[in-house]
Amino acid sequence: MDLTRRALQVAPELLGCVLRVRGIGVRIVEVEAYEGADDPASHAWQGPTARNASMFEAGGRIYVYTLHGHACLNVVCGPEGVASAVLVRAGEVVEGIEEARERRPGVRDAWLARGPGNLCRALGVTRADDGTVLGSGGIELVPGAAPAGVRAGVRVNVSRAFARPWRFWDAGSASVSAAKLHPAARAAAPRQPSG
DNA sequence: AAGATGATTGCCT
DNA sequence: GGCAATCATCTTA
Fold first, then answer.
1. Å between CA of A104 and C1' of C4
2. Is residue A85 in some structural domain?
3. Is residue A148 part of a domain?
4. Residues of chain A (136-165) having a beta carbon less than 7 angstroms from strand B
5. How many domains does chain A have?
6. How many whole angstroms separate alpha carbon A82 and alpha carbon A33?
């Protein structure tokens, strides 16, 4: 897969692929695209900072940031110098499920990697993994068949640019996260159809 | 050095 | 559906 294309194009193709981190693999079932200067909802909207530097690298690395104490993982896209990334929001554990269960005690299997913060916790990904090149450091992306039913909708919990349907998910998966809207988005689209 | 913010989560009603 | 916990990062002084 060519990861130097823009995130919006890569995002739906990531569904069905397997993301493997140090022996634990998840089949990706939910993603969101984030671009750079043209995307007010993106971390890179206002230019490079110490945190988002990985978003400006060439496609093929990962960008890991922390929010509210949780780590979130993105697949960096686009050519070097252009900010573009796909947030991996949820997956189904297909490999190393015993270890994933230990990291997420009391959670049913389908929910082990449901939600971007939970997915990183199940995989053991932290901010220390930021900037890792896929295929190194025990982290790799394995191509897989696209799901039969791919749906698109607005991104979850973003406070700006909430009209863009840049979220993609496998309609047939029980591991897709809850799609909560930011209050500003709810005010603008009170009759937003659910997924 | 201190205050505001948020691509979240989980518990509450 | 509402909201509080929680903390790295960024802004302002």
1. 22
2. yes
3. yes
4. 155-159
5. 1
6. 14
